[in-house]
Specification:
About 45% of the residues lie in helices and about 15% in strands. It has 14 helices and 11 strands. The protein has a 6-stranded mixed sheet with strand order 7-6-8-5-9-11, sandwiched between helices. A 5-stranded mixed sheet has the order 2-1-3-10-4. Strand 6, helix 7 and strand 7 form a beta-alpha-beta unit. It binds (2S)-2-hydroxy-2-methyl-3-oxobutanoic acid.
């Protein structure tokens, strides 16, 4: 009797190991782990972190808990050092990436093709490139070569500059401004070429540095400005110059990807695509209302005229050319062609 019951329990465990929370058994392609670690720089209160949360939830639901992706915001798996995310993924510390290649430029520079200044004049141009299958196949091949399986791309959001000193309308206005930039040397060069003093800093360090006045300025999508309440850190002036809009890459460390069955791989890929779609919709909604919301906080928002945007573009032209050459000239030329076509369409 007792034996029978025990056997029964064992059978039940075999049939539904994940849902019962009982140690899993080896699947065809290897054992599944109890948890897969996903790094995001910001938490779900931000559209970016929300994208990660949606992805994790969809995967959990659609695999009946077999694949449990746990989100670690604040890049906490790498002690807040977001520029270490990609190498930590390669070392097996991070299993799932939901991040901006901006942060990985020290490890995989070639993934930074979307970050060049003023490459995408508007969302239509951004959509044309990220929706171009041939282009994305080539980009995804770079991700694969770097050690991760790419699943989908969301949108980090157009990055806008804010500062505590004065309205920034033309390149000269940046002279002498101490600006915090992410750990991408290209952003340092962009700021430096306009006479600003760039300082590289993690997101965790940026907020205290703004609060203490160690730096005068920062650049981030306005949804980040709003969610992090950057206006409370003395940032009184914003220029919505739309200078750089990175993707948000959803990807899985290659050894983890290979440990899943083909059916689960398909489910996870579709979940990432659905999450990315929702994340982009959220970023766009927030983008559409950000000027009004930031202005309502008493922050002066400047929206450049086409002539002013042109002046920014001229000021960053040399940096653009230098970094195009270093990142991936072939692929960036293709992006430029797709953008040019989207202008005429
Ligand atoms: O650190 C930043 O500025 C952030 C949150 O935008 C990135 O991770 C690139």
């Amino acid at each position: 009797m007792t034996m029978n019951r025990r056997t029964l329990i064992r059978c039940a465990a075999l049939l539904a190991p994940a849902t019962l929370g009982i140690p899993r058994f080896a699947h065809a392609q290897g054992a599944y782990r109890a948890e897969y670690k996903m790094s995001t720089v910001v938490p779900p209160a931000f559209a970016w972190g929300k994208g990660g949360e949606i992805f994790g939830n969809l995967v959990r639901e659609r695999t009946a808990g077999r694949i449990n992706i746990k989100q670690y915001p604040g890049a906490s798996l790498v002690q807040g050092q977001q520029d270490r995310e990609f190498s930590a993924m390669r070392q097996g510390i991070i299993d799932v990436l939901c991040g901006a290649p901006i942060n990985w430029s020290g490890t995989v520079r070639e993934l930074g093709v979307f970050t060049l200044p003023f490459l995408f004049p508007d969302h239509k141009a951004w959509d044309a490139v990220t929706g171009n299958a041939a282009f994305m196949d080539e980009y995804f091949a770079l991700v694969r070569k770097a050690g991760a399986e790419p699943l989908a791309v969301g949108e980090t959001g157009y990055r806008q500059i804010s500062n505590s000193k004065r309205p920034i309308v033309k390149p000269e206005d940046l002279k002498g401004i101490k600006v915090r930039v992410v750990g991408s040397p290209m952003y340092g060069d962009i700021m430096g070429s306009m006479g600003a003093n760039p300082t590289f800093m993690s997101w965790a360090d940026a907020q205290p540095a703004l609060a203490s006045g160690a730096v005068d300025a920062q650049e981030n999508p306005l949804e980040v400005f709003l969610a992090a309440k950057i206006h409370t850190l003395g940032q009184k002036y914003v220029t919505k110059w739309n200078y750089s809009n990175d993707i948000l890459l959803f990807a899985i460390a290659a050894p983890i990807w290979q440990s899943w069955t083909a059916a689960d791989q398909k489910t996870v890929r579709e979940a990432a695509q659905d999450a990315a779609k929702q994340q982009v919709a959220l970023v766009r909604k927030l983008f559409a209302e950000d000027v009004q919301r930031v202005s309502a906080l008493g922050v002066a928002v400047h929206q450049p005229s086409p002539a002013e945007t042109n002046a920014w573009q001229i000021a960053t032209r040399r940096t653009y050319a230098q970094w195009k050459a270093q990142i991936h000239p072939g692929l960036i030329t293709k992006a430029e062609e797709i953008v040019a076509k989207s202008r005429k369409a």
